[in-house]
Amino acid sequence: MGMPHLPLSSRLTVLRGVGPAYAEALGQAGLETLRDLLWALPYRYVDRGSLRRIAELDRFHPGDERSPVTVLGTIKDLRQTTTRVQRMTLTEALLEDGSGTLRLVWFNQAYLARALRPGDRILAFGAPALGRHGLELRGPAWELMGRGAAVADDDPFVRRYLPLYRKLGPITGRVRGRLVQEALGRVQVMEDGLPPELAKGLPDLLTALRLLHQPLDESDPQALEQGRTPAHQRLAAEELFAFALGVALRRAGRMQRRGRVMPTSPALRERLQGFLPFTLTTAQRRAFKEIVGDLTSGRVMHRLLQGDVGSGKTLVAFLTMAMAAETGGQAALLAPTEVLARQHAVTFTRLLGDDAHRMQLLLGPMKAAEKRAALARIASGEASYVVGTHALFQEAVAFADLQLVVVDEQHRFGVKQREALKTKGGDPHWLVMSATPIPRSLALAVFGDLDQSVLDELPPGRQPIRTRLLDPDDAERAWDLVERELGAGRQAYIVSPAIDPTDETKVSLRDIQAMEALLRARFHGVALEVVHGRLKADEMGARMARFVSGEARLLLATTVIEVGVDVPNATVMVVDHAERFGLSQLHQLRGRVGRGAHASHFVMLSRAETERLHALVETQDGFRIAQKDLELRGPGEFFGTRQSGVPQFQVADLLRDRALLVRCREVAEVVLARGLNDVQRAWLQQEQARLKLAEVS
Ligand code: ADP
Ligand code: MG
Prior knowledge:
Layout: E1 6-7, H1 20-28, H2 34-39, E2 44-47, E3 69-82, E4 89-96, E5 101-107, H3 112-115, E6 121-126, E7 128-131, E8 134-138, E9 141-146, H4 150-153, E10 161-164, H5 173-186, E11 187-188, H6 196-199, H7 205-213, H8 221-226, H9 230-256, H10 266-275, H11 282-295, E12 302-307, H12 313-325, E13 330-334, H13 338-352, E14 359-362, H14 368-380, E15 385-388, E16 402-407, H15 415-422, E17 429-434, H16 440-446, E18 451-455, E19 465-470, H17 475-487, E20 491-495, H18 509-522, E21 528-531, H19 537-548, E22 554-557, E23 570-575, H20 583-590, E24 600-605, H21 610-618, H22 622-638, H23 658-674, H24 678-690
Parallel strand pairs: 1-11, 5-8, 12-17, 12-18, 13-15, 13-16, 14-15, 16-17, 19-24, 20-22, 20-23, 21-22, 23-24
Antiparallel strand pairs: 2-10, 3-4, 3-6, 4-5, 6-9, 7-8
Bound molecules: adenosine-5'-diphosphate and magnesium ion.
Residues 278-281, 284, 307, 309-315, 435, 459, 564, 566, 595 line the site of adenosine-5'-diphosphate.
């Protein structure tokens, strides 16, 4: 055949049958080139070995969730009704496969009456259950295999595995499968970016793609389903290596940048010592030593300071800032919320004592005159300690001599925002802090080019926090506890979740108002403040201040208090609807109590997902909780926003492939030391674009 071989970068319109409408639908799903189409793997493989004849089904244990079955048959009858009691749409289909018939039922899926018709040949997957009319599949997943005349003409099961693709607009899964097959037949793969160290023992790229779109009969079904075949490994290695190489390049670039050497002296040491309200923990001392090492090395510091809630990161941050501020420069601390920025400002004011005037707070919604004055003090260098929110990113902010930036809870800032600060002057040193302890492989992925220090120890004298999970019906026990603590002179937090706990702007005022009413009735005459993400900043600040000062005894809040709020006299927290939070988020919330000398309590109210929530009752080790949370939710959700800088891979999985990532990272260093050739450079650029990874700088 004279069909020319196509490069991976060819537009999809080169395929037969891809006209403007299809190209548009593919484009909307982010599929523009043959490369994109081929990297979008089937979402599932049907194993003919798992296909059952309907007549055989009663030999399986009905209702066993763990043994779902696949059946292939023709729809004989299809009807839709509304149930009398709960007014649900009920769709029933009778499936026939030559050996028998099986009832399929779906609730509230009205569209099925349009999507399916009698005569359709479908694959249905689900766990058989015993219904009034015998065995049935309830709410099965299904795939249309043929309709009308198309039914007879091709048997999808010529091979053992049938790949299934998601429908994209007008393009059905089957049509998509055909496009993939055509692309596989016509594509030519020249570039090969994977170094031999990683490629060894794995199929080449084109073979891997073929194997994944058309698995061999002898493939292991479990490995296929879990993405652990050599072909998967090959693609994952490509993605992870491209990522690791990008990170290694960034790091290499940074190592070459000259950083300002901060002058140390006995006088400075004495000055810093004088700031300390307590003896540093061993971990704080070690971390600070590593930081000083960076600041005096002549290179730009890029360090991550990890530590569980309450491990004392703020003090380390302050000392680091003092290194710059006490030697004639400026340092800025960036906080993710105004509440937190204000609190850091209070802490710094206390630590600085007589020198408190050298600290400047900058927030977005300050009054014009106040902000002008703040900007002037930052520009003149009069303010050597600057604390603020993302307002610090704004163009109007100019520093006299910014030498160091500390970012608190860095994963809450977008990559773009962090980049914006880099343009603020010179080439400042960076210290980023994270209260979510994360496993090494992931830290590598998220904070790839950073050096790491870990605070693995809490300051002495901490009281353990007693954690309980209560059914909402037993909420009275929680309120009794709050009452007791209030009676002893303590303060309490009540947390009511926003609709979407990761998005503070989505606060359901109705929920929080209901809780407020409940609390006011239950705790007559006790001073209560309510804070949530919809309040104006100054109002929020004023209310928080009344709680911090002890004037207010109860604080009803959404997750705005999640990070960093430090009120040692608060000894009890009650979280309503705890199931709406991630485990790490709950651990952060819990970290708000247990900060003083008094025993503290953390109570979760929930009757859902109690097994998951129990992890918090069992341990106070943030590292273990984070690991569990990560396994349950996956890296994307774990880190919150998509823009947080966690790379989005198509095949690689940061949890499953963590060992591979560590290996890719090692090989990337080796390859970089050898020097990249043009093919590798071009490949790297393509992969970075495909994965939308941060630019290689
Ligand atoms: P996080 O690491 O969660 O940001 P903080 O910096 O807010 O923790 O510190 C938690 C509490 O521990 C604060 O009240 C702080 O004053 C106190 N703290 C920090 N370091 C020490 C120390 N070395 N000894 C005693 N208390 C400390
Ligand atoms: Mg903190």
